[in-house]
Amino acid sequence: MKQRILLVDDEHAIVESLGYALEREGYEVLEAADGSQALDLARTAPPDLVLLDVMLPGMSGFEVCRILRQESRVPILMITARADEPDRIVGLDLGADDYVTKPFSVREVLARVRAALRRTQAVPARDEVLRVGEIVLDVARHVVRVGEQPVVLPPRQFDLLRAFLSNPGRVLTRALLLQQVWGYEYDGDDRTVDVHVRWLRRKLQEAGAVTSIETIRGVGYKLDG
């Protein structure tokens, strides 16, 4: 069965070029030009992945992302015309897995789509529970706790925390995190990692975590073990 991609964008040229490329890769492509249509399609024909433009008529892509994340763990790749960090932070904090900035290469988008789908198809260890300090992560149940305090994380931040808990005290480079968590090779843009780490660190701190994610300047990050 073909994997289904929901492509949400009101720019005809982008929908045409990306849709054509995705279909050539063997995906089934559903197209939506606004947020309401996107939500209707996501509910009636659940996709395996959503490519979602930020700037949509009526309901914004951010709002669509927020609603989708409440209803599903489907991978969401945001498409933005702006490289400004606030836009990226908003989308990632709402639960988006990744983003691409216009203008982009179709090859880059396809690579990120493949990587995101590979991540969702990976079967977690049945009873894997990771503990470092007061932080506990239950892989199979997709549950995180700091002591007795539950912490709600979007899928990508959950996977990021899993990588840190699997390697306590070890410095993880941005390139390694991109490969392990996002599933693709370093392409010169490591801001995605930095934003996710920042928000993960903040959520752990708000839950009362003493164990922290330390920045190793010029290298990457380390979870104090």
Detail the topology: elements first, then pairings.
Elements: E1 4-8, H1 12-24, E2 28-32, H2 35-44, E3 49-53, H3 61-71, E4 76-80, H4 85-93, E5 98-101, H5 106-121, E6 129-132, E7 135-138, E8 143-146, E9 149-150, H6 155-165, E10 171-173, H7 174-182, H8 191-206, E11 213-216, E12 220-223
Describe this structure as you would to a colleague.
The longest helix has 16 residues, at 106-121. The relative contact order is 0.11. With 225 residues, this protein is an alpha/beta fold. The strands form three sheets. The chain has a five-stranded parallel β-sheet with strand order 2-1-3-4-5, with helices on both faces. A four-stranded antiparallel β-sheet has the order 6-7-8-9, covered by helices on one side. It is globular. The protein folds into two domains: 4-121, Rossmann fold (3-Layer(aba) Sandwich); 129-223, Arc Repressor Mutant, subunit A (Orthogonal Bundle). Helix content is 42%, strand content 22%. Helix 2 (35-44) packs parallel to helix 3 (61-71) and helix 4 crosses helix 8. Helix 3 (61-71) links the parallel strand 3 and strand 4. It has eight helices and twelve strands.
